[in-house]
């Protein structure tokens, strides 16, 4: 029996456009905040990396907190949309603050300014917005195919935005003057764009009534649970822990790719290549996302597609290393594109896999924790992205890099090569290993059979 359809094409596109707003923040921050702070403001990369790491420790528990708050929210707009809508206002303000460190302040005050702005952005506002946005996948439809389509639309917009941010920002800043004021102006423009698009996205979908979401539940009354119990529910779900692991590794991967601006500038001697490599990364990802829903149907689920995709990604990144030591930029770009093509399916259907993980908790624990379950999205982004950016700063400091110097030591050049060529390959191998064990769909089918629940009932 065919699943009930809940969404029109414009709902899916409207939802997906929300990742324009998310990546105006994320892509800009992860790709350029370190180079802005080291090369324009003149801060030490090691200290900046340490501040980012400390920030991650401080905001490490806010993900589950906001996920739990979403689950407990009852409003006319639903559970998640209010958090998505209003959380982004804070994102816009603090994004600008991260790129508006006053040059007139002393060094200690500049470090403090960045630390406070960065912590508020990641630990509070981005967390609330991103978890709510991700949770909508479970709250606006119960159709598994529509969830995959939502994820594909979402990440098509995400990677398109990342491509544009990475491709145009260096030139955009240069045209605005290339100084601290130019970075601030670009940040303001990106923040305004994000604020407008996020509002449109939040209003383009409507959450299902709670009674419809809970249809088929074994108990007629919603079970209450606190933050501690929510945490226990999550750690009992092995698939949640796996997804958190892949998110963290993917953000570490992205941080190293973002550090490519140092590699292009100092090793390849052409910082404009950073934008060209952004095309090699994002265009294949977008192509893969377009075909992901069809491939999921062809291979009867997401497990085989995701695993085979990452096998291709590992092969691609290994060949990037070879091409890098050969000194062939065209081959590096070609193999970068091959790796990105393999990474695409997991990016597109990941939210649908998280929805299946939420279903796994319901089948094993008898509790709905949709909002809390999607805390893995923000948790992984913050921990992985934060640690990744911090590691970039630490490794550069360790290698003797000084952003304001005209010439860098060979130790720094070797470190940039290690970060851009070897670390992404290592992270892809680890992700491939985790995906080889993440067959949550088959596990849920077995649980349903054991409980005598039909597939249609469980999907509804």
TrEMBL record:
<feature type="transmembrane region" description="Helical">
    <location>
        <begin position="153"/>
        <end position="174"/>
    </location>
</feature>
<feature type="transmembrane region" description="Helical">
    <location>
        <begin position="309"/>
        <end position="341"/>
    </location>
</feature>
<feature type="transmembrane region" description="Helical">
    <location>
        <begin position="419"/>
        <end position="440"/>
    </location>
</feature>
<dbReference type="Pfam" id="PF13347">
    <property type="entry name" value="MFS_2"/>
</dbReference>
<feature type="transmembrane region" description="Helical">
    <location>
        <begin position="83"/>
        <end position="105"/>
    </location>
</feature>
<feature type="transmembrane region" description="Helical">
    <location>
        <begin position="239"/>
        <end position="265"/>
    </location>
</feature>
<feature type="transmembrane region" description="Helical">
    <location>
        <begin position="43"/>
        <end position="62"/>
    </location>
</feature>
<dbReference type="InterPro" id="IPR039672">
    <property type="entry name" value="MFS_2"/>
</dbReference>
<protein>
    <submittedName>
        <fullName>MFS transporter</fullName>
    </submittedName>
</protein>
<feature type="transmembrane region" description="Helical">
    <location>
        <begin position="180"/>
        <end position="200"/>
    </location>
</feature>
<keyword id="KW-1133">Transmembrane helix</keyword>
<keyword id="KW-0812">Transmembrane</keyword>
<feature type="transmembrane region" description="Helical">
    <location>
        <begin position="277"/>
        <end position="297"/>
    </location>
</feature>
<feature type="transmembrane region" description="Helical">
    <location>
        <begin position="111"/>
        <end position="132"/>
    </location>
</feature>
<feature type="transmembrane region" description="Helical">
    <location>
        <begin position="20"/>
        <end position="37"/>
    </location>
</feature>
<dbReference type="InterPro" id="IPR001927">
    <property type="entry name" value="Na/Gal_symport"/>
</dbReference>
<dbReference type="InterPro" id="IPR036259">
    <property type="entry name" value="MFS_trans_sf"/>
</dbReference>
<keyword id="KW-0472">Membrane</keyword>
């Amino acid at each position: 029996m065919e699943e009930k359809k809940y969404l029109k094409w414009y709902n899916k596109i409207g939802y997906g456009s929300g990742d324009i707003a998310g990546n105006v923040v994320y892509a800009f921050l992860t790709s350029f905040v370190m180079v802005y702070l080291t090369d324009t403001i003149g801060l030490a990369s090691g200290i900046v990396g340490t501040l980012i790491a400390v920030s991650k420790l401080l905001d490490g528990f806010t993900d589950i907190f906001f996920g739990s708050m979403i689950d407990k929210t009852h409003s006319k707009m639903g559970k998640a949309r209010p958090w998505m809508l209003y959380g982004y206002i804070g994102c816009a303000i603090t994004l600008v603050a991260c790129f508006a460190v006053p040059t007139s302040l002393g060094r200690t005050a500049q470090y403090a300014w960045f630390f406070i702005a960065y912590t508020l952005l990641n630990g509070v506002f981005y967390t609330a917005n991103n978890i709510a946005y991700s949770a909508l996948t479970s709250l606006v439809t119960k159709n598994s195919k529509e969830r995959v389509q939502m994820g594909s639309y979402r990440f098509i917009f995400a990677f398109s935005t990342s491509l544009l941010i990475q491709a145009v920002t260096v030139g955009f800043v240069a045209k605005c003057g290339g100084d601290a004021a130019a970075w601030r102006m670009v940040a303001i423009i990106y923040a305004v764009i994000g604020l407008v698009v996020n509002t449109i996205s939040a209003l383009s979908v409507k959450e299902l009534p709670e009674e419809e979401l809970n249809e088929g539940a074994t108990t007629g009354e919603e079970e209450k649970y606190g933050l501690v119990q929510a945490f226990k529910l999550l750690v009992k779900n092995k698939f949640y822990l796996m997804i958190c692991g892949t998110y963290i590794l993917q953000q570490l991967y992205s941080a190293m790719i973002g550090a490519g601006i140092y590699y292009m500038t100092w090793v390849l001697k052409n910082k404009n290549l950073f934008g060209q490599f952004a095309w090699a990364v994002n265009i294949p990802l977008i192509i893969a996302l377009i075909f992901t829903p069809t491939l999921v149907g062809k291979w009867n689920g997401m497990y085989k597609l995701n695993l085979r995709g990452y096998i291709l990604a590992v092969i691609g990144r290994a060949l990037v290393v070879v091409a890098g030591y050969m000194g062939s930029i065209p081959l590096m770009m070609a193999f970068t594109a091959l790796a990105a093509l393999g990474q695409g399916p997991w990016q597109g259907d990941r939210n649908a896999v998280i929805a299946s993980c939420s279903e796994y908790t319901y089948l094993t624990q008898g509790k709905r924790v949709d909002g809390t379950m999607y805390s893995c999205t923000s948790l992984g982004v913050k921990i992985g992205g934060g640690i990744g950016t911090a590691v970039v700063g630490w490794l550069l400091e360790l290698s003797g890099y000084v952003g304001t110097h005209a010439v860098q030591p060979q130790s720094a050049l070797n470190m940039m090569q290690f970060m851009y060529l070897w670390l992404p390959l290592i992270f892809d191998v680890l992700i491939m290993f985790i995906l080889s064990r993440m067959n949550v769909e088959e596990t849920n089918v077995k649980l349903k059979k054991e409980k005598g629940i039909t597939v249609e009932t469980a999907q509804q």
